Hints:
Layout: H1 7-12, H2 15-21, H3 24-36, E1 39-40, H4 41-45, H5 52-64, E2 68-73, E3 76-81, H6 83-115
Antiparallel strand pairs: 1-3, 2-3
Helix pairs in contact: 3-5
Amino acid sequence: MTPRAGPRARLQDNAPVFAALGDPTRLKLVARLCERGPLSIARLADGVTVSRQAVAKHLRALQEAGLVHGSRAGRESVWALRPARLVQVRRALERISSDWDAALGRLRHMVEDEEEP
């Protein structure tokens, strides 16, 4: 991910996260890592309706979005969440929410001013 200047560019840098989390299987994997901490692909594949190979593919997509990272533990790959990336995205959402609140406040003032005799 290449850093860009300006708040709009920083918001765009988060698009891969939203795209990655838009997939139900990926969202389930992230939720599982949030709840249980680092897990092997075998443990992550338990309870999902896709193969271990598919889980590995989903994990790579999550890794490209900066949400998880993998490491080797003997013969297994162990995957963990990157909480800092989720914090960045939450801040971006808070900025969007704040901008919308301000815009709605301005609209309300405009409407209320027009309604007064």
